[in-house]
Design goal:
By secondary structure, this protein is α+β, with helices and mostly antiparallel strands. It is built from one helix and three strands, in the order βββα. It folds into two domains: about 35 residues, no CATH class; about 45 residues.
């Protein structure tokens, strides 16, 4: 990575490596020994002015968002169990 300049979020770090968050939900491990310099941008991932919505609105928004995430995760878990059950049923039938 000679002469590369990267601006990504660090998601994990230890004595030897750090993990960068890359677009698309991917991550990349970098050896700390390979890093020539680091600079903290002091930028926040939270959009500027978000606090202007007020505590009640933010609480309601986060609650609604979390509720939808829980519902989606519950549906995904149900579908996984359902399809796993179907696959086992058909596999057991083929094994006979």
């Amino acid at each position: 990575m000679d002469n590369e300049h990267r601006t990504w979020s660090i998601t994990r770090e230890n004595d030897r490596t750090l993990t960068l968050h890359v677009s698309g939900g991917l991550s990349q491990d970098i050896k700390i020994a390979d890093i020539k310099s680091r600079q903290d941008t002091a930028l926040s991932l939270v959009p500027e002015g978000l606090e202007a919505l007020g505590a009640d609105t933010l609480r309601d928004f986060c609650g609604a968002l979390f509720g939808r995430l829980v519902a989606a995760a519950t549906a995904a878990a149900f579908l996984h169990r359902l399809f796993t059950g179907f696959l086992k049923f058909f596999q057991d039938g083929l094994d006979r």
